[in-house]
Amino acid sequence: MADINDFVWGPIMLALLVGTGVFLTVRLKFLPWRNLGYAIRMIFRQKKEHEGDISPFQSLMTALSATVGTGNIVGVATAMVLGGPGALVWMWISAAFGLSTKYGESVLAVKYRETNSVGEMAGGPMYAMKNGIKNKYIGRGLAAMFAFFVVVSSFGIGNMTQANSISAALATSFSIPSWLTGGVVAILALSVLLRGIRSIGKVSSVVVPSMAAFYFVVAVIVVVVNFAAVPAGVAEMFRMAFSFDSVAGGIGGGIVASMLTSMRWGVARGVFSNEAGLGSAPIAAAAAQTDHASRQGYVNMTGTFFDTMIVCMLTGLVIASSGALGTVDPETGKLVSGAQLTILAFSSVFGEYAKLIVSVALALFAFSTILGWEYYGEKALEYLVSNRKVIMSYRVLFSLVTFIGATTALEVVWNFSDTMNGLMAIPNLICLLWLNKDIADECFEFQKVVVEREKQGEDVDYPIDSEDLQI
């Protein structure tokens, strides 16, 4: 299974993920880049209610709750050890093109969403495939594949691995037994999930900004205290990112990495962190109350910006400026990596409290990921099986499985779910490329009749006068 996983997350898949982002960026005339500031302003703008289940902000926070997770702490540290400091640069580059991918996914999710039997929005790549691809056999086949991969992934990547991260962090810092952690996480998850997307959206809109602000503040403190080492650290990142065979200097003397190695690990961990191209975040976008698919596309694409360009960057700068990168564990003789490296980096300023800071951040990040991924899995299951009793049973089962994840190390299950997570991208990327004209039409129409006016200070609510819809 490990070999299959390496292939799924190997160079070909990563090239397809980034390549799709490059194609869409050019196809959309770089509008996702040019409108990033506008997109960020849209997050906090209150407009009149439109069709949907939750506010645009809650939709973004639900999507972020699933992406801002252990990858931002553990994944960045691992990438910088295996791919060198230059991996952080490639994380940024992949995220830049991932903005367009995330925008396109979210546009299609809102454009082709449906209303289910209880009046809730049902959307995501599976509905875009079913309703957008004219060949029904291909569209429905891709949709079923995607939905199946999401359901399987939700129990692994979105559940057991996260619960295990929480129990491991709390056991290390506070010696809390894993069974107690598992029980508490299961009860908390069940209390939120039983009430559906509105409950998830409300909790995420509080937990995600709070945890992000907490992590942002402590990370900035470390960077400021160690600022003397930042310029050299950044220079080293760019040197190793584009050097064909290089040994790290002052910020990681024990790290050896080529440009291709930096690229592979940077892109892989970047995609794994922000999920641009996997098709998960658009499921949350489809639930948003919005007047136009493109508006929510812009709102949700900022998730990639916040996740990788802010949170991951801060983790990378903390590690680079602390001098911890390249540290060898005296007991194992191997380079310190993962959460331990991040703890070591924070300890350069916070000492023994670093373990507490990283553990709390990991626990909050991981719990929010559990909530976000349950919604993804539920909507995917709803596409496959419309029975409401099955959906409610899924919510209960999903909550209970967190206990198993917290108390058991299941490497085989993790590898399997990791593979399913990667396989989600294949039908999703096909859909994005197949329906690229739909994405472009929505983008250019919205740009002409809404964005240009709103940038001039007008308050525009779509739809507007028909004569303005001529593209």
Automatic annotation (TrEMBL):
<feature type="transmembrane region" description="Helical">
    <location>
        <begin position="176"/>
        <end position="194"/>
    </location>
</feature>
<keyword id="KW-1003">Cell membrane</keyword>
<feature type="transmembrane region" description="Helical">
    <location>
        <begin position="206"/>
        <end position="229"/>
    </location>
</feature>
<feature type="transmembrane region" description="Helical">
    <location>
        <begin position="137"/>
        <end position="156"/>
    </location>
</feature>
<dbReference type="GO" id="GO:0005886">
    <property type="term" value="C:plasma membrane"/>
</dbReference>
<keyword id="KW-0769">Symport</keyword>
<feature type="transmembrane region" description="Helical">
    <location>
        <begin position="396"/>
        <end position="414"/>
    </location>
</feature>
<comment type="similarity">
    <text>Belongs to the alanine or glycine:cation symporter (AGCS) (TC 2.A.25) family.</text>
</comment>
<keyword id="KW-0813">Transport</keyword>
<feature type="transmembrane region" description="Helical">
    <location>
        <begin position="241"/>
        <end position="260"/>
    </location>
</feature>
<feature type="transmembrane region" description="Helical">
    <location>
        <begin position="305"/>
        <end position="325"/>
    </location>
</feature>
<keyword id="KW-0472">Membrane</keyword>
<feature type="transmembrane region" description="Helical">
    <location>
        <begin position="73"/>
        <end position="93"/>
    </location>
</feature>
<keyword id="KW-0812">Transmembrane</keyword>
<feature type="transmembrane region" description="Helical">
    <location>
        <begin position="7"/>
        <end position="26"/>
    </location>
</feature>
<protein>
    <submittedName>
        <fullName>Sodium:alanine symporter family protein</fullName>
    </submittedName>
</protein>
<dbReference type="GO" id="GO:0005283">
    <property type="term" value="F:amino acid:sodium symporter activity"/>
</dbReference>
<feature type="transmembrane region" description="Helical">
    <location>
        <begin position="356"/>
        <end position="376"/>
    </location>
</feature>
<dbReference type="InterPro" id="IPR001463">
    <property type="entry name" value="Na/Ala_symport"/>
</dbReference>
<keyword id="KW-1133">Transmembrane helix</keyword>
<dbReference type="Pfam" id="PF01235">
    <property type="entry name" value="Na_Ala_symp"/>
</dbReference>
